[in-house]
Write a structure and sequence with these properties.
Order of helices and strands: EHHHEHHEHEHEHHEHEHHEEHHHHH
Oligomer: single chain
Structural class: alpha/beta
Helix content: 40-55%
Radius of gyration: 20 Å
Shape: globular
Number of helices: 17
Bound molecules: S-adenosylmethionine, iron/sulfur cluster
Strand content: 5-15%
Largest sheet: 9 strands, mixed
């Protein structure tokens, strides 16, 4: 992993020293860039309420995942959207009015907004306006893109929108290996767009978006990581980040131990903070505390139908927090179905039970079947 600009080098160094390497670069930047007295006092309050084991909260989430669509043009084999699986949701793009409705209720406490979940954000025709709106509310914006749906004009609009951080998802340096996972993408076009992004950012004299090359490592592309790092340096990429892949088929697992994924860390599951700090808004307004939630039936409510103030301390949020704080006490009488149950009691990430998801999807497609 490499940080190129002096700016990100300093930031990461400080963060690494202070947080003993437990740092997420975009989150740290959001804290440094997009702070306010209100956000900081809310953040302190979150910590306090968590320590006091409160389940009805005065504090509000400071991180939002906003799924601007659940639609994609590619067919990555281990991605739900790539497989055409939607968890009972309609396929849709959020409109700018949907987004304004959500942000207007939550912006004051938000440091950070991730503008994707299960879908390709650059396919949303309102994406540049969405970014602008979030920026106008002093929120750090991050997107991840497969880079297929762009051209020079759109790249210019993306830079001009003020997007803070972009993950460019390219997993290979040759057409052959890249195309094995990013099924349906044109490698040459993707690399051309990548180069155009770096060139136009430089020509515009802009430091933003900070660009991360995110390289998902599989067996077929692990030998290309070093070459990708070199190309990243040549292109002027800020941060080259080879990450372990989530894999459903053992044949795809890389040999190198450092790229093998640990699906969950039981300790971190038990210490889940997300129920206090995060809100995940799906493209149809469904909400959940984290991005592991997939099925519509598991939503904690719907922000298009009820105000956020009524949702944040509703019964399912409170019960899930209680479960997180007192797993033993709550399991004796399981009162409510929550996706957090598997996670906290069985230490299993809900959305990783892919077979269950596919079975459920089949059932929904064939009612009565
Ligand atoms: C579902 S994608 C949505 C955003 C966008 N379509 C993209 O691919 O960048 C969210 C993130 O998951 C990453 N991803 C896709 N397949 C993965 C896998 N098998 N393991 C780990 N991360 C993966 C993508 O690179 C992306 O950063
Ligand atoms: S490009 Fe992103 S959203 Fe599309 S199929 Fe691949 S991982 Fe999923
Ligand atoms: S599903 Fe797991 S990670 Fe998500 S909020 Fe619940 S306990 Fe936390």
């Amino acid at each position: 992993m490499k940080i190129n600009t002096p700016f990100t080098r300093i930031v990461t160094k400080i963060a690494r020293l202070t947080l003993a390497k437990r740092v997420d670069l975009p989150h740290t930047l959001a804290f440094l860039y997009n702070n306010s007295f209100k956000k900081l006092s809310n953040l302190i309050n979150i910590e306090l309420e968590k320590r006091l084991k409160r389940i009805t909260l005065k504090s509000k989430p400071y991180i939002m995942f906003l799924e601007v669509n659940n639609i994609c043009n590619l067919h990555c084999p281990f991605c739900m959207t790539g497989k055409g699986v939607y968890g009972g949701r309609e396929k849709r793009h959020m409109t700018i009015d949907d987004v304004k409705g959500v942000i207007d209720q939550t912006w004051e406490h938000l440091y950070f907004i991730q503008l994707y979940n299960w879908g390709e954000p650059m396919l949303n025709k309102d994406i540049f306006e969405i970014i602008r709106y979030a920026k106008s509310k002093n929120i750090f914006t991050m997107a991840s893109s497969n880079m297929t749906a762009l051209d020079e004009g759109k790249i210019d609009r993306l830079i001009d929108s003020g997007l803070d951080y972009l993950k460019v998802a390219v997993d290979g340096v040759s057409k052959e290996s890249y195309s094995l996972y990013r099924v349906g993408a044109d490698f040459d076009k993707v690399m051309e767009n990548f180069k155009t992004l770096m060139r136009r950012r430089k020509e515009k004299g802009s430091r933003f978006p900070i660009v991360e090359w995110q390289f998902v490592v599989f067996k077929h592309n692990e030998d290309e990581v070093d070459e990708a790092q070199k190309i990243a340096d040549e292109l002027g990429v800020d941060y080259f980040n080879p990450i372990p892949a989530y894999i459903e088929d053992a044949k795809w697992i890389p040999k190198n131990e450092k790229y093998k994924a640990t699906l969950y860390d039981p300790e971190s599951v038990r210490k889940c903070r997300r129920l206090w700090s995060h809100i995940n808004v799906r493209c149809d307004g469904g909400i959940a505390p984290c991005c592991y939630e997939f099925f519509k039936k598991d939503d904690f409510g719907n922000i298009f139908k009820r105000p956020f103030a009524e949702l944040w301390n509703n019964d399912i949020f409170k019960y899930s927090r209680e479960l997180c704080m007192h797993p033993d006490k709550v399991t004796k009488e399981r009162k409510m179905d929550t996706i957090c149950y598997n996670c906290i009691i069985y230490e299993k990430r809900p959305s990783l039970n892919v077979e269950d998801i596919l079975k459920q999807e089949e059932k929904e497609e064939k009612p009565g079947g």
